Amino acid sequence: MPFPSRRTAVTRLVGLALLAWVSASATVATELPAQTDARLEVTLPARAIGGGDGPAFAPRSVLASRELRELLRGGFPARLRFRCELWRDERFNNQLDAAVEWDMLVRFDQLTRKFEVYRIVGDRASQLGRFDTPEEAEALIEKPFRIMAPPMRRRVSYYYDASLDVEVLSLSDLEEVERWLRGEVRPALTSSRSAGTAVTRTIRSFFVRLLGGERRHYETQTRSFTAE
After folding, report:
1. Is 149 exposed, middle or buried (0-12, 13-18, 19+ CB in 10 A)?
2. What is the Cα 104 distance to its own chain's centre?
3. Which residues contact 103 (CB under 8 A, 6 or more apart)?
4. What is d(CA 190, CA 188) in angstroms, rounded to the nearest whole number?
5. C-alpha distance across the termini of the chain, in Å
6. How large is the greatest C-alpha to C-alpha distance in the chain, in angstroms?
7. Is residue 222 part of a domain?
8. SS3 state at 207
9. Element (H or E) spanning 67, and its range?
10. Distance separating alpha carbons of residues 185 and 166, to the nearest angstrom
11. pLDDT value at position 129?
12. Tens-of-pLDDT digits for all 228 residues of the chain?
């Protein structure tokens, strides 16, 4: 279903920006404790076998902030970019053996008033569900997602290094995201582009400050394990 027009989105977000500016100083102290719980959890499989079950990923509270949920309701999709690296633990000279990336996308459909969650692997986006509240959408995002283990050498020590970037997409991305989800164009969410007019750049800069940076970054590393 289509997003609202950019003019409508800008008008709505100008009002949202003003409201957020008035309340930001009063709410920041209460928001910060909740953010300390945001993290990325990675769980190793019971057995480490190359080509078998790999680690399971579960983000925790990464969409819980009030500002981020207001952005979602205002029409800004949020992208979660995961990256998992398999490192060979050679004590003094660790080696990167494999890496895999995938994304999740959360957006609020203004017409149906539903939060939609997608998983994106390569060029393919699969809808995982539609929800009435951001809490329900985040509950789905937090369900562990297990990947396949890359090939590994037996009796060699390895560890996984994992990261998650949470980013709010700009106004200039809204129409392209909608077309991509309909299958009309290839995804271009990783491209670097201008945020558009001076008004949209100002709004985006304001919300970037509220979110504490261009994106929120989380990292974790597993213990070393020996492949069987």
Report:
1. buried
2. 6
3. 79, 80, 81, 82, 119, 120, 121, 189
4. 5
5. 48
6. 60
7. yes
8. helix
9. helix 66-73
10. 23
11. 95
12. 333 444 444 445 444 444 443 344 333 333 333 455 899 999 999 999 988 999 999 999 999 988 888 888 888 889 999 999 999 998 788 999 999 999 999 999 888 999 999 998 887 888 999 999 999 999 999 999 999 999 999 999 999 999 999 988 765 566 666 666 666 655 544 444 443 444 444 444 444 444 444 578 999 999 999 999
- Confirm whether 40 is domain-assigned: yes
Kindly state the tokens that stand for 40: 């990325």
Q: Which domain holds residue 208?
A: 6-82+103-156+165-226
* Total domain count, the chain: 1
What's the rounded Cα separation, in Å, for the pair 118 and 183?
13
- Cα separation, 183 vs 84, in Å, equals 27
Residue 16 belongs to some domain of the structure: yes
Joined together, the tokens standing for residue 183 give 């299958």
Q: What's the token pair of residue 85?
A: 């690296």
Quick one: which of 220, 224, 96 has its CA closest to 157? 224
The answer to the question of residue 98 being in a domain is: no
